[in-house]
Amino acid sequence: MHSLVYRSVANESFELSEIYSMLSRAKDYNAKHGITGCLLYHNSQFLQLLEGEKEEIERLFQKILQDPRHHSIVVIENDESDVRLFTAWSMAFYDYGQNGLSAHFKLRQIDTFLSESSIFSKKSTLALQFFSNVKDILFAV
Ligand SMILES: Cc1cc2nc3c(=O)[nH]c(=O)nc-3n(C[C@H](O)[C@H](O)[C@H](O)COP(=O)(O)O)c2cc1C
Fold it and tell me: Model's pTM, two decimal places?
């Protein structure tokens, strides 16, 4: 199992409605290729976890790198991993901006992480722990 985490910045013309249609294609592709993960979006910033076989992740990431809809891509984690966190999600998606006040407190910790933490400005093994927390907080059923 391989896990890759990167962050990037959405191009200004990339609207939320287009992100949703991109996601629906992405979920099909990921499901066919044994890829799972999570995409977070806030203030034009993406943070994505991709999980799967190394070759599959590399092939997909090459496409993502060349995608003109975002830029300033920084890899934070790219390594073998013991666990697949998002077993039930071909690509879990969360847009903070679309959520009401009730979600606010739950998200504050994550928001602080994204905007202020140096964890995501350089390579970090804490990225997987972060996504484990995200799963518990945002996607708990
Ligand atoms: C932030 C971001 C995340 C993406 N995540 C995925 C993904 O998880 N799976 C996927 O198939 N495409 C994803 N894409 C879309 C790919 O970059 C690409 O458009 C898609 O794989 C189709 O590529 P193709 O037309 O060359 O086959 C993502 C794009 C962006 C901008």
Answer: 0.85
